[in-house]
Amino acid sequence: MTPRPDDPPRPAGDLDWSQWRRPRPTPARQRHDWWLALAVAAGSVVMTALVSSMGVHPAGSGPALAEQYAWGVAVSAPLALRRRYPLIVPLVVGVVFLAGQARHVGDNLIPSIALFIALYSAGAWAENRTAARRVRIGVIVVMFGWLGFGLVRFTITPSPAFERAAGPLDPVLASVLYGIVFNLMFFLSAYFFGGMAWLSARRRAELAHWGEQLRLSQEQNTRGAIVAERVRIARDLHDVVAHHVSVMGVQAGAARRVLDRDPDLARSALQTVEETARTAIGELRGLLGVLRAEPDEEPEQEGGETSSPGLAQLPELAAMARSTGLDVDHGVFGDPRPVPAAVALSAYRIVQESLTNVVKHAGARRADVRVRFLETTLEVEVADDGRGRSGAPERGGFGLVGMRERVAVHGGRLEAGPRRGGGYRVRAWFPV
């Protein structure tokens, strides 16, 4: 795809910046070139008038004043297109420059400036770098050839009458060396600064490209962080609400069925519903405290507590599941030791979600909750004797998905599936 003049530079697909091409000049830059050409032409007219008025014509006699004005305008006019046709302009300017020299035009300063600008523009704006290098070198070689021709002619003609010189060199030799050194510096400067201008433009394009890439990366990271935070909030809300609502639903259903026959049992079930609701509200407030806290602050819960549920609360979780009529056995194996709070919270949530699924889906009579402190890992397991689908989420549910996400955060592993002897097992390992 060819970029428009006002398009930003487009690097190659593999970001090979050595193949970068400078975009074409904008209309504003082209207008600046027209003003530059006009200024150089005006300078040429002024300098030609001054040289002719001083009567110090280098060649003794030159063309008419009007012709000299025309040569000055002719060598300046191509600069109006110097950025649009950077390889053609130095060739045209070089030819006009030599033709004016052959005609013994009086002013050499402004034509030299025009030639300098043309060579600089070829190095700074030509898209084809090989062609730019060849054109500039070719023009410089021709100019030095013309200089050599002039120096040879200067040396073989009768020497002009020099005033007594105080320097150590012969006046003719000094004049030749001066001409060579001056022109060498002149042309090498045009070549060097043109190349530096192109390289500077390429580096600006690289910076703009990588700045845009950085901005896109930051936007992508921000979107990823927002999505990850939404997933975390959804997972925590699911884990906090689903278990307690399931227990409340089971107890409320039991109370409804025995309300007329056994008011005491119904009252006990409703009391469990009330306690479970309070627990759910407390955990929701704690979750909201975490979400509202600053990154470096400890979220405070009611009563000044700052702890989240962990392994120490698993007996309470088992007791709550027992209140639904499920026989829950809780056991701890190995040497108990402190584990990171985040790991403890994830283990608690996995047991909570597993027991919730047992109550809601398994139709089980018994469930075993096992916590094992192994050498380098913490293992939690929930197994039941139900229909073998206690760990499977409902259609559109997020139970197992949330468990796998929690384990993955800590670099752990999760296994969930039917047991060989019947029932369902959820087992998670956390590296500690």
TrEMBL record:
An example Gene Ontology molecular-function term: phosphorelay sensor kinase activity
TM spans (from-to): 34-51, 108-125, 137-156, 176-199
Keywords: ATP-binding, Kinase, Membrane, Nucleotide-binding, Phosphoprotein, Transferase, Transmembrane, Transmembrane helix, Two-component regulatory system
Pfam families: DUF7134, HATPase_c, HisKA_3
Protein name: histidine kinase
GO CC terms, sorted: membrane
CDD domains in UniProt: HATPase_UhpB-NarQ-NarX-like
